Amino acid sequence: MSLLETRGLTKRFGGLVANQTIDFRLEKGELVGLIGPNGAGKTTFFNCITGFYRPDEGRVFFRGRDVTGWSPERICRAGIARTFQVVKTFRDMTVLENVMVGAFLRHPRPAAARAHAEAVLETTGLTHLADVQAGGLPIAYRKRLELARALATEPEVLFLDEAMAGLNPGEIQEAVAMVRRLWEQGLTIVLVEHVMEVVMPLAQRVVVLDYGQVIADDTPERVAKDPRVIEAYLGERFARQAREG
Amino acid sequence: MAILVLLWSLLGLAWNIIGGYGGQVSLGHAVFFGLGAYTSSILLERWQVSPWLGMLAGAAVAAIAALLIGWPTFRLQGHYFAIATIAAGEIFAILFRNWEWAGGAVGIYLPLIRGDQLVNFQFHETKVPYYYIVLVMALLAVAVTYALERSRAGYYLRALRADQDAARSLGVPITRYKLIAMVISAVLTAIGGTFYAQFVLYISPNTVFALMLSVQMCLVAVLGGLGTIAGPIIGAMVLIPMAEYTRVFLGGRGGGLHLVVYGLLIVIISVFQPAGLVGLLRRRTRPTPPPAMPTPAEEGIA
């Protein structure tokens, strides 16, 4: 039994099919990259799994349980946490308070939630910013804070939606190291990313979406050589670079 | 005046729980005020039930109303929620205006009970007992807010005010917590309603279900400072004397000049102190130093 599985997942917006009969399996302890050109349906897929969208067809199973159509809060309680592509920091709360909101899920008492949140800040290297208003942080720290907040809910699976977008190369390196560390500690991670250079060395397996469909699902090396992927994603990009260069 | 300021502190604090901490701007809180006033008054007038018991009954009725209003309206966001609560407020006002058994548009005159005893919740010799009663009520609201601020519910409310989707992604059942906040807020508001009825000894739909009441509860909290304990108290201390003095000095000249001046003062406060009057205090006492922000590059070296 896979940890997480979607069967024939389909989501339409009016006439547009954002996700078309996606069959996806995630095993415990995997680190999977989900890539695809803009508008391929990656975020929609995330939203269907994490309860923000209700799929039109198909089912989502988590630990063998049908969780299709569950609310986001219930999905989170079940053990699936996520971050957002556009960061959603609680701006007028401090960094520690932001993480405490996540920690409260499994630690209803404030003192326990605070202790757990402090531990999470420690592992994510945010301790020195604990009392800073989160709204004033630079984007790299807000992205990291969002990761910390999600971790504080003690998930089994973590979905990261473009956690590296908008970061400079040094910041990307740090973020990659952190994701790898979390994975080594036993967390199952799905990484949505535009930056191929991030996903390829990090992921064990890469799933490629194009026009809402899975066009490849293999090791990074083989995906990078897949003609359909090059056509749909890399090809388009190299073609553009060639034009601009 | 002190009694009025305390009553409005209570109402502002009550409103602040859902409107300030929860960020759900309700303009229908007069419903809870009116239900508190009417429940205790009807019980007293018809069945000679002690206003203290009536106050508890009124709080219970208001709590139920909060659930009934909140359940459908909390699906709405932002301005639409505010509009829906205005509508709810007007529905109750019309209902009570036409409900002959509850006094209709004329309202209810409360039976006078001489003797000035605390159990009767009526004092004719002196107003001082009212002052202490409303003081205790306002302190109760402060205590409730203080406890809420430090509880899981307090954190959850601030989180869902900032971003509902992010809160849900962290396992916060947002509708449940909005309803909890609404019920607490309604109970405290209803207590204020019963106090008002016992203080004035006459209630009518036009006075206790008035939209203006709802607006003023919101104003007190917003001008004072949302989502803080001191905010609504400061708001009441500034706003209520301001309203009274402009009325005393300018009300007699007709043409609603006092309302114009009152409105102008509100505009001035909101332009210069958008974070509320509490922001003034904060700026004075705690000049927050900009936090030292190590750049990622520096961290990399270290």
Overview of the structural elements:
With 245 residues, chain A is α/β, with parallel strands linked by helices. Chain A has helices at 42-49, 72-78, 95-103, 110-123, 139-151, 169-184, 196-202, 220-225, 227-244; strands at 4-13, 16-26, 31-35, 57-62, 65-66, 80-82, 157-161, 188-192, 205-210, 213-218. In chain A, the strands form 2 sheets. In chain A, strands 6-7-8-3-9-10 form a 6-stranded mixed β-sheet, with helices on both faces. In chain A, strands 2-1-4-5 form a 4-stranded antiparallel β-sheet, with helices on one face. In chain A, α3 packs across α4 (110-123) and α3 (95-103) runs parallel beside α5 (139-151). The longest helix of chain A is centred in the last third of the chain and has 18 residues, at 227-244. Chain A is globular and about 50 Å long. The model of chain A has no long low-confidence stretch (mean pLDDT 90). Chain B has 302 residues and is an all-alpha fold. Chain B has one domain. Helix content of chain B is 72%, strand content 1%. Chain B is built from 14 helices and 2 strands; from the N terminus they run ααααβααααβαααααα. Chain B has helices at residues 2-21, 30-47, 51-73, 79-97, 128-150, 152-162, 164-169, 174-200, 205-208, 211-224, 230-250, 257-272, 278-285, 296-301; strands spanning 108-109, 202-203. The longest helix of chain B is centred in the middle third of the chain and has 27 residues, at 174-200. The termini of chain B are far apart. Chain A binds chain B through residues 50-52, 71-73, 76-77, 81-82, 84, 88-93, 97-98, 100-102, 104-105, 108-110, 113, 125, 128-129, 131-132, 136-138, 140, 146, 149-150, 152-153, 168, 170-171, 173-174, and chain B through 150-152, 155-156, 158-159, 162-163, 165-174, 291, 293-294, 296-297, 299-300.
